[in-house]
Design brief:
Layout (H helix, E strand, L loop, with lengths): L35 H25 L1 H17 L3
Length: 81
């Protein structure tokens, strides 16, 4: 298997980080220059990507989607208000 560094287009995670997203180290701290608007934009982009990934999964695994839909319907029928 060739070494990852020898590829023409390495993974974006392998690149040195630049910009306001450099502070994403798993902690709750944000960078000194990140504003609420930037954080909301990043969150909106993440949620759009997440929805797109779910739609793709639903398209390529229709049986799983059908089972999940039936399971949800069963839960809703048995739920007591």
């Amino acid at each position: 298997m060739p070494d990852r560094d020898s590829r023409d287009d390495p993974s974006p995670r392998a690149q040195p980080a630049t910009g306001p997203e450099t502070y994403d180290n798993g902690s709750n701290e944000t960078g000194p220059c990140e504003t609420d608007a930037e954080r909301r934009r990043r969150r909106a982009r993440f949620l759009r990507d997440l929805a797109e990934a779910r739609e793709l999964r639903d398209r390529v695994q229709p049986r799983r989607v059908k089972v999940a839909r039936l399971r949800h319907a069963m839960r809703m029928r048995t739920f007591r208000w």
